[in-house]
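Here is the promised in-class demo. Please do not try to memorize the tokens; focus on the logic of going from shape to residues.
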């Protein structure tokens, strides 16, 4: 029997993927919706201006230029960074299985093998106590010796301590910005050491300077790559609690290290335990839960070669889990014409207006939108995508969306 082919993007497709994901208002969710409906990234790029107009954009949407992508690729090569697409064999299988908008493309520096190993995230306070840092160190070393790769966000405090403790066994650092703009400064000398036995990854452009809004995006990758998340210290409102919430949404295990009720840095972790997180007072508290999960290899299906034998590939569609036979075959200019919506009884413009009327500041799922609007789910997705491209949509977990007041830039 012929071995199934390994799906990979061609250089031209990878170039188009980068142009599309670097374009204005195109985040992971919108990227996948665009490629699925247009039949490819190049067709989606051609359709973007008209789609944004239909969504109500008041100005032309900015599409990443070929020159910008060429410059990013050149800088990536200089830094030893590679771009891996969702569905390619080097892409982290646990992250690919995540329902919280996995990045279409990851920029990776280091050993790709580390991304295929079972991982545990360790996160916590930037202003950590001595006891918190000592426990993070002990936990990271023990997990590494037990065969786990330690994932964290390369922030000050608990994150960096966990990375340093796991350098010999392997650790993965997830950046909030680009590889050429590592933050905080304390992480700059650690990054090449992490890459020696593990990897440093980012979904952001190479030269992206991280902003506050970028760190929750990073946190969903930290939790998405992992079987479980251990929160060592976290005040109420801490970013580490955002990581824990992502982990719950991604069906990952959440552990919390208890602390003194007199220490504000323990308020968040104590709250997590009260709300049902697993207590972590020693390394066995993590291993006893995750070792059976690791033995089952829950993400094995995402490591297997896709079916296909000697059949030719349809390009990038299989990478996104799209049935090539069911994908649109229209020319790019026709991919989103009125004929698609007309069959449902509403024109495309009317469908967008109806969805915009129904949306408000409170998040609602796409399924609920379909029920209350009476429109097919596929048409609701297209309408939400067009509103998203116009900067009118805000995404929450679980495919929930809300309407932004006035024009804005979506961070989907």
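The designed amino acids, position by position:
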């Amino acid at each position: 029997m012929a071995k199934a082919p390994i799906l990979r993007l061609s250089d031209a497709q990878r170039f188009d993927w980068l142009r599309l994901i670097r374009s204005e208002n195109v985040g992971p969710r919108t990227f996948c919706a665009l490629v699925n409906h247009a039949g490819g990234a190049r067709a989606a790029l051609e359709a973007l201006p008209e789609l944004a107009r239909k969504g109500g954009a008041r100005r032309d949407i900015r599409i990443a230029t070929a020159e910008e992508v060429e410059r990013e690729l050149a800088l990536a090569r200089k830094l030893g960074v590679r771009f891996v697409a969702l569905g390619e064999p080097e892409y982290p299988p646990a992250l690919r299985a995540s329902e919280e908008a996995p990045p279409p493309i990851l920029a990776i520096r280091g050993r790709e093998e580390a991304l295929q190993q079972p991982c545990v995230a360790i996160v916590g306070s930037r202003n950590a106590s001595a006891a918190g840092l000592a426990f993070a160190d002990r936990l990271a070393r023990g997990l590494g010796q037990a065969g786990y790769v330690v994932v964290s966000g390369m922030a000050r405090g608990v994150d960096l301590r966990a990375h340093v403790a796991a350098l010999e066994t392997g650790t993965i650092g997830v950046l909030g910005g680009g590889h050429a703009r590592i933050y905080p400064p304390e992480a700059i000398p650690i990054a090449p050491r992490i890459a020696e036995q593990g990897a440093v990854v980012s979904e952001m452009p190479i030269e992206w300077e991280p902003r506050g809004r970028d760190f929750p995006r990073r946190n969903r990758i930290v939790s998405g790559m992992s079987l479980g998340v251990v929160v060592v210290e976290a005040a109420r409102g801490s970013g580490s609690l955002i990581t824990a919430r992502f982990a719950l949404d991604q069906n990952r295990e959440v552990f919390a290290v208890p602390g003194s009720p007199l220490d504000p840095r323990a308020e968040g972790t104590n709250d997590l335990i009260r709300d049902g997180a697993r207590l972590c007072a020693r390394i066995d508290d993590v291993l006893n839960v995750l070792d059976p999960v690791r033995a089952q290899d829950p993400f094995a299906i995402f490591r297997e070669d896709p079916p296909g034998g000697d059949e030719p590939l349809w390009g990038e569609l299989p990478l996104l889990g799209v049935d090539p036979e069911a994908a649109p075959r229209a020319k790019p200019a026709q991919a989103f014409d009125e004929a698609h919506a007309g069959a449902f009884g509403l024109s495309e413009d009317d469908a967008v207006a109806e969805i915009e009327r129904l949306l408000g500041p409170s998040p609602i799922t796409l399924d609920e939108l379909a029920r209350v609007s009476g429109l097919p789910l596929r048409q609701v997705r297209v309408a939400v995508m067009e509103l998203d491209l116009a900067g009118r949509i805000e995404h929450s977990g679980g495919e929930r969306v809300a309407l932004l007041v006035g024009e804005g830039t979506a961070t989907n």
